[in-house]
């Protein structure tokens, strides 16, 4: 699943492509991927103009000029492809759609804009979705109002992180970091990278972390996410950005996917374990389990 940097990379690309365009037609191929009624589509989508593309956690919010928002979750295999006479840009999971004719068998819905350009939502495994919401209802959607704060927000501080982590005091830090209700947008890759950089063992319980540990986790998390944004996200599942370039973050990863290879800090081998059901990479020599006295 794309994490914060991948979805943010898609957001930036899409924003540059679709803001200012008016939706003139909606082709609904798989109704479960787009659950709104035809009446809602006719009334609120057709004729509306895209005024912004925003992101919350791993969800894209395409803001329209009529107080409505098109929410999109790409999940595992979702892909957004923009196609016009002079440009063909894909973002998300790769399949032949990025180079082939659209719509294809993975296309679930597509929008046609007033200049005849199109935005395709493709999703092989159909876990992703698009849904139209009135803007004032967004905060009431259970999925949205359960989300923790954005880790890159200006008002997110180490104290705020501490407060969030302590909601699950007895849990191991790794599963808490990827819990979307604690902090939004962090998945497996960035949690492993953050804990390596912070020298914290993923098997440490939250209530054992010192303030110094939490400050290190906070600083590490921000720098890991910022680096990934700069590199256009990770190539783990071959996400490509709106310009068709793959993100290169994993070339800079210190621990994720490096099991058996020497730790870049101490030279001892990185190990991979299962922790709360997720593959977890770390160095057991320089990431110590913290036990407060
Ligand atoms: Zn090490």
Q: What report would you give on this structure?
A:
The chain is an alpha+beta fold. The protein has two domains: 4-145, MutM-like, N-terminal (N-terminal domain of MutM-like DNA repair proteins); 158-282, Orthogonal Bundle (Helicase, Ruva Protein, domain 3), CATH 1.10.8.50. It has seven helices and eleven strands. The chain has helices at 4-18, 38-45, 142-145, 158-165, 173-177, 188-197, 211-230, and strands at 23-28, 50-56, 59-64, 68-73, 78-83, 88-92, 107-113, 118-123, 129-134, 271-275, 278-282. The strands form three sheets. It has a five-stranded antiparallel sheet with strand order 1-7-8-5-6, covered by helices on one side. A hairpin with a 4-residue loop joins strand 7 (107-113) and strand 8 (118-123). The chain is elongated. The two termini are 39 Å apart. The protein binds zinc ion (ZN).
Instruction: State the oligomer.
Output: single chain
CATH architecture of the largest domain: Alpha-Beta Barrel
- Determine the fraction of residues in helical runs and give it as a percent range: 10-25%
Stretches where pLDDT is under 50 for at least 5 consecutive residues are: none
Whole-number tally of structural domains: 2
The CATH topology assignment of the largest domain is N-terminal domain of MutM-like DNA repair proteins
> What does the radius of gyration come to?
20 Å
For the sheet with most strands, the description reads: 5 strands, antiparallel
The SSE string, one letter per element, is: HEHEEEEEEEEHHHHHEE
Which cofactor or ligand species appear? zinc ion
Total helical elements: 7
Distance between the termini: 39 Å
* Average pLDDT metric: 89
Q: What is the CATH domain class of the largest domain?
A: Alpha Beta
Per DSSP E runs of 2 or more residues, the count of β-strands stands at 11
Query: So what's the overall shape?
Result: elongated
Tell me the strand percentage band.
15-25%
The strand line-up of the biggest sheet is 1-7-8-5-6
Helix-and-strand structural type: alpha+beta
Under CATH, the homologous superfamily of the largest domain reads MutM-like, N-terminal
């Amino acid at each position: 699943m794309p994490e914060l940097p991948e979805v943010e990379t898609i957001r930036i690309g899409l924003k540059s492509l679709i803001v200012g365009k008016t939706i003139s037609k909606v082709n609904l191929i798989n109704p479960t991927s787009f659950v709104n009624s035809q009446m809602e589509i006719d009334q609120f989508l057709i004729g509306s103009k895209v005024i912004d593309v925003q992101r919350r956690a791993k969800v894209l919010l395409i803001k329209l000029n009529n107080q409505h928002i098109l929410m999109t979750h790409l999940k595992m295999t979702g892909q957004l492809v923009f196609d016009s006479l002079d440009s063909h840009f894909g973002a998300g999971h790769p399949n032949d759609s990025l180079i082939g004719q659209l719509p294809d068998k993975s296309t679930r819905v597509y929008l046609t804009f007033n200049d005849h350009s199109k935005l395709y939502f493709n999703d092989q495994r159909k876990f992703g979705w698009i849904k139209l919401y009135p803007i004032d209802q967004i905060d009431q959607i259970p999925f949205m109002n359960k989300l923790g704060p954005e880790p890159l927000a200006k008002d997110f501080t180490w104290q705020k992180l501490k407060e969030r982590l302590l909601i699950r005091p007895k849990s191991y830090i790794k599963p808490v970091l990827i819990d979307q209700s604690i902090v939004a947008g962090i998945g497996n890759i960035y949690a492993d990278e953050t804990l390596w950089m912070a020298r914290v063992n993923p098997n440490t319980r939250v209530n054992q972390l010192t303030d110094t540990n939490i400050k290190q986790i906070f600083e590490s998390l921000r720098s890991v996410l910022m680096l990934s944004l700069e590199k256009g996200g990770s190539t783990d599942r071959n996400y490509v950005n709106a310009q068709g370039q793959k993100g290169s973050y994993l070339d800079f990863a210190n621990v994720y996917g490096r099991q058996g290879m020497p730790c870049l800090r101490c030279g001892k081998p990185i190990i991979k374990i299962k922790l709360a059901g997720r593959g977890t990479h770390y160095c057991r020599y320089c990431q110590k389990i913290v036990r407060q006295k």
